[in-house]
């Protein structure tokens, strides 16, 4: 049966507004652009709202190298409604509520079928600038110039085209502004969902925190707070937050942080020494959510001898290698990395969405600001000033 398109736009180029970044570090410009119809295994999405994460800002600043691609449409945390679908698309249809995700999940390859990780051996090994299957863009400026994609999502546009491996269908009952938070999940910076998914997943799937555990979290941004929420729900007995911003303690309490350490007030003591004193030898689980090798080492040193587990969520911002004493590894401590919380988008996001609807997890506390699309640069300012956890950007 032929699929119907009630809006009459299927197969046609759509003209809409997008926030285009033309040069690194410059304010985004709201422009009229053209969005091509989806090709095979692709869908075109009408974005309802989006949000800004540190990953957008990181790539926005890059001025040299292979990732410095401009003009570009950023954004990778969003929720929207399917406007039309391309050939061979059976999983989605017009009107479905969906969240695009930067982490692919084809469900066919060896990695996607395995429960040991959340990689995708077909689509997950390269950071493509355009569509993943044919390497071309679906965006053009009104003068015909190519506009580059970002993380296979590009949600700072009223319409975007996304491959089916980067999309998850969710219930239409889910509040749109909260659904944004389900869309990403990257280190101390990337989508809120990425952040939120990364934090929750790190606590539940990677660390697998058990009731009564002690936890230390280095960095109480969106990712760190999500880790705290996951630890709280697992019944951790002590959740220690480490951050230079004293105000983060009051925020952290909402997510289960029971104790707070500001490194600036520790005097000559290292944070790891303070943590060992208040936990009788170190925490069962430590999480680094900033992206500094020195903090990764300190998180490792804060973990308990014999069984302490350190989970690295932050992307090291200076490419500095991690140096740890291998003697402690021999005694039983472990270190592991975590990307997107170890979660598989198509199977795990709907589960977390249901947990929110059943009031089992807290998403509301992450949203600190909301702006209209034309004020998108204000969202950048709020994040750069450290005033925002997540700013929801409403397209309409």
TrEMBL record:
<dbReference type="InterPro" id="IPR011032">
    <property type="entry name" value="GroES-like_sf"/>
</dbReference>
<dbReference type="InterPro" id="IPR013154">
    <property type="entry name" value="ADH-like_N"/>
</dbReference>
<feature type="domain" description="Alcohol dehydrogenase-like N-terminal">
    <location>
        <begin position="42"/>
        <end position="171"/>
    </location>
</feature>
<keyword id="KW-0862">Zinc</keyword>
<dbReference type="InterPro" id="IPR013149">
    <property type="entry name" value="ADH-like_C"/>
</dbReference>
<dbReference type="InterPro" id="IPR036291">
    <property type="entry name" value="NAD(P)-bd_dom_sf"/>
</dbReference>
<dbReference type="Pfam" id="PF08240">
    <property type="entry name" value="ADH_N"/>
</dbReference>
<comment type="similarity">
    <text>Belongs to the zinc-containing alcohol dehydrogenase family.</text>
</comment>
<keyword id="KW-0479">Metal-binding</keyword>
<dbReference type="InterPro" id="IPR002328">
    <property type="entry name" value="ADH_Zn_CS"/>
</dbReference>
<feature type="domain" description="Alcohol dehydrogenase-like C-terminal">
    <location>
        <begin position="222"/>
        <end position="350"/>
    </location>
</feature>
<protein>
    <submittedName>
        <fullName>Alcohol dehydrogenase-like 1 isoform X2</fullName>
    </submittedName>
</protein>
<keyword id="KW-0560">Oxidoreductase</keyword>
<comment type="subunit">
    <text>Homodimer.</text>
</comment>
<dbReference type="Pfam" id="PF00107">
    <property type="entry name" value="ADH_zinc_N"/>
</dbReference>
């Amino acid at each position: 049966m032929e699929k119907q398109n009630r809006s009459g736009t299927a197969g046609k180029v759509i003209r809409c507004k997008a926030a285009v970044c033309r040069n690194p570090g410059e304010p985004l410009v709201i422009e009229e652009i053209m969005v091509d119809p989806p090709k095979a295994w692709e869908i075109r999405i009408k974005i309802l709202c989006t949000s800004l994460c540190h990953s957008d800002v990181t790539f926005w600043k890059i001025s040299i190298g292979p990732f410095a691609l401009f003009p570009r449409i950023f954004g990778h945390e969003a929720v929207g409604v399917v406007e039309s679908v391309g050939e061979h698309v059976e999983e989605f249809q017009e009107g479905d509520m969906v969240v695009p995700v930067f982490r692919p999940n084809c469900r066919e390859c060896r990695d996607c079928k395995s429960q040991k990780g959340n990689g995708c051996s077909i689509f997950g090994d390269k950071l493509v600038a355009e569509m993943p299957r044919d390497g071309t863009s679906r965006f053009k400026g009104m003068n015909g110039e190519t506009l580059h994609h970002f993380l296979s999502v590009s949600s700072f546009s009223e319409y975007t085209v996304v491959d089916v491996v980067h999309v998850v269908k969710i219930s239409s009952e889910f509040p749109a502004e909260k659904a944004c938070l389900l869309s990403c999940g990257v280190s101390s910076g990337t989508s809120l969902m990425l952040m939120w998914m990364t934090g929750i997943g790190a606590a539940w799937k990677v660390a697998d925190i058990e009731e009564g555990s002690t936890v230390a979290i280095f960095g109480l941004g969106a990712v760190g707070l999500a880790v705290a929420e996951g630890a709280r729900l697992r019944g951790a007995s002590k959740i220690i937050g480490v951050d230079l911003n004293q105000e983060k303690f009051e925020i952290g309490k909402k997510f289960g942080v029971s104790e707070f350490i500001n490194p600036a007030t520790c005097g000559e003591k290292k944070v790891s020494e303070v943590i060992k004193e208040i936990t009788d030898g170190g925490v069962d689980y430590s999480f680094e959510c900033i992206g500094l090798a020195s903090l990764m080492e300190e998180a490792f040193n804060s973990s308990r001898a014999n069984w302490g587990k350190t989970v690295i969520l932050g992307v090291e911002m200076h490419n500095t290698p991690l140096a740890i004493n291998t003697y402690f590894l021999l005694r039983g401590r472990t270190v592991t990395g975590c990307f997107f919380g170890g979660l598989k988008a198509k199977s795990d996001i709907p589960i977390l969405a249901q947990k929110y609807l059943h009031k089992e997890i807290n998403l509301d506390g992450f949203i600190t600001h909301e702006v209209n699309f034309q004020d998108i640069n204000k969202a950048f300012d709020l994040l750069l000033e450290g005033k925002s956890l997540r700013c929801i950007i409403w397209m309409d």
